[in-house]
Design a protein that fits this description.
seven-stranded parallel sheet; elongated; Rossmann fold; 290 residues; two-stranded parallel sheet; alpha/beta
Length: 290
């Protein structure tokens, strides 16, 4: 993920950022750009193997420490321990990026109760745990910036209904918290990536990646650094008058097209045009009209 930030060097110097799901995919790109801009970055994940390599690699490449911590955001006690450690190390938390999440593809009628609950608990409850404790532990007294990563679920989310429902709830939660927490100096927004080329796309069904770009008006897939730039913009002073909003980074994909195919029925639909009132009741038709 070698790229140059469009933001000025040192923009986030002296700031502390926590990125959940920060070891892979979009989270790794966000963590890298925050660190390149001067922030001290903590990356968290449920699995140590997801954060250790990224933390070590970025620390070596950038010459500054990236701190990896293990946390299951679904577990309130683990989130509390995460904030204890961040504040013990740095004494502050300026930025929170909620990128941690998880889902699995499948038709809604095949979900088990356990599988559905796991996705809701991770993507909605986990995001809530991170937001509320960030406010309670530091931001309510000192202000702060939160960005929640959601999804392109504006027209429904076929094959991913569970995460679509959770992400839609996060958008509404974000709008509400933007109002409730405004007086505390907390700005909170969402970024909604479209189809972005990351390692996470390996779980997509065969052919879906190839089909996806055809349904995007800009006729390509997004890059991880384009999402990280949007996140950094919302964390920056340039967005100081923006809160409760969702920035879509999707090449116009949410406005047009769909890669979810609905099969045709065995028999075509009835396309017979119904009769006009004059045809239905000719005895009452105005003879002066055709």
């Amino acid at each position: 993920m070698a790229f140059e930030s469009m933001f000025r060097e040192g923009l986030f110097e002296g700031r502390v950022a926590l990125v959940s799901g920060g070891g892979t995919g979009l989270g790794a790109a966000i963590s890298e750009e925050l660190a390149r801009l001067g922030a001290r970055v903590v990356i968290a994940s449920r699995k140590r193997e997801n954060v250790e390599p990224t933390a070590r690699g970025l620390s070596r490449d950038l010459g500054r420490e990236i701190v990896p911590l293990v946390c299951n955001i679904r577990e309130r006690a683990q989130v509390e321990a995460l904030y204890d450690e961040v504040l013990r190390r740095f004494g502050r938390l300026d930025f929170l990026v909620n990128n941690g999440g998880g889902q699995f593809p499948g038709n809604a009628d095949t979900y088990t109760d356990k599988g559905f609950k796991a996705v809701i608990d991770t993507n909605l409850t986990g995001t809530w745990n991170m937001c509320q404790l960030a406010a309670q532990r530091f931001m309510s007294a000192h202000g702060g910036r939160i960005v929640n990563i959601v999804a392109n679920m504006w027209r429904g989310f076929p094959n991913l209904m569970h995460t679509g429902a959770a992400r839609a709830a996060v958008v509404n939660m974000t709008r509400t918290l933007a109002i409730e927490w405004a007086s505390q100096g907390i700005r909170i927004n969402c970024v909604a990536p479209g189809t972005i080329l990351t390692t996470g796309m390996r779980v997509y069904p065969p052919g879906m990646i190839e089909a996806a770009w055809h349904q995007i008006p800009l006729k390509r897939l997004g890059r991880a650094e384009e999402v990280s730039a949007a996140v950094c913009y919302l964390l920056s002073p340039a967005a100081d008058f923006i809160t409760g909003e969702t920035l879509r980074v999707d090449g116009g994909g949410s406005l047009w097209g769909s890669i979810f195919e609905i099969p045709d029925p065995p028999q075509p639909p009835d396309l017979t045009i119904p009769p006009s009132p004059a045809q239905r009741w000719p005895e009452f038709a105005d003879e002066s009209q055709d």
